[in-house]
Design brief:
By secondary structure, the protein is α/β, with parallel strands linked by helices. It is built from 11 helices and 10 strands.
Length: 264
């Protein structure tokens, strides 16, 4: 049995990379891995030294979703309660990703299925390898959507395409994902880590308070009426307008020099 941790956490130049590390099992989600990811995301949200986040998987897959071997053991023992892991793990993970006060980039190497694909949808941006594939096969195992996919996926690709993926368990390859707006960029498989790290490092030097406020504005507006969205935008603009970064950007523009952002 491997003694390697199931979740790797590395920090470089303000970028924290969280790597799902069960490559032999396509990074499928055991209780241990889900517990670790919940804790790591919650810690990352409050760590001021971290200014951007990358979520990825080790080996040839991003994440194959729930570990069905662990699940079948629980089913046979009469101990399987899927709603418990939804409440304890999947919902907190998705909320931590969407509400993270800094940009989160999914580096999708290979297959992203089920909850694994849903985690990628919950990130702010997605860099996919050319062999990446997204699969929502809940119906094939007699289940329904979880991990926020019923909310995030239609907002990325539209209701009709999301329904097609869910009901027919129809996989979407990387090029098609790019065409329909599911991913931000497609690169060669070998370039996924580099491309994601470069994008995260660039954003880590940006106005991170502004990024957090933009995320909040879009998250609120997704389920709000126009007056509520406008009011929230106003509060966000008041917050962002009072930051050191806003003042720096204006002064840099007038002085015709590049701004130096500090996240304050």
């Amino acid at each position: 049995m491997s003694t390697e941790p199931v979740l790797l956490v590395t920090d470089v130049d303000g970028v924290r990379t969280l790597t799902l590390n069960r490559p032999a099992a396509f990074n499928s989600l055991t209780t241990e891995l889900k517990d670790g990811l919940v804790a790591a995301l919650q810690a990352t949200a409050t760590d001021e030294s971290v200014r951007a986040v990358v979520l990825t998987g080790a080996g040839k897959a991003f994440c194959a979703g729930q570990d069905l071997k662990e699940h079948i053991g629980a089913l046979q023992a009469g101990q399987a309660r899927l709603w418990e892991t939804v409440e304890k793990h999947y919902n907190p993970i998705v909320r931590a990703l969407t509400e993270m006060p800094k940009p989160v980039i999914a580096a999708v190497n290979g297959t992203a299925a089920g909850a694994g694909a849903s985690f990628a949808y919950a990130c702010d941006l997605r860099i996919a390898g050319s062999s990446a594939k997204f699969l929502m096969a809940f119906a094939n195992v007699g289940l329904t959507a979880d991990s926020g996919a019923s909310w995030t996926l239609p907002r990325l690709i539209g209701h009709g395409r999301a329904m097609e993926m869910m009901l027919l368990a129809k996989p979407v390859n990387a090029q098609r994902a790019l065409e329909i707006g599911m991913v931000t960029e497609v690169v060669d498989d070998a370039d996924v880590p580099r491309a994601a790290q470069e994008l995260a490092a660039r954003m880590a030097t940006g106005p991170t308070t502004s990024y957090a406020t933009i995320k909040d504005a879009l998250l609120t507006a997704a389920s709000a009426d126009l007056p509520t969205a406008l009011a929230n935008e106003g509060r966000g603009q008041e917050r962002a307008g009072g930051t050191v970064d806003h003042r720096e950007s204006v002064e840099a523009f007038v002085a015709k020099r590049p701004p130096v952002f500090t996240g304050r």
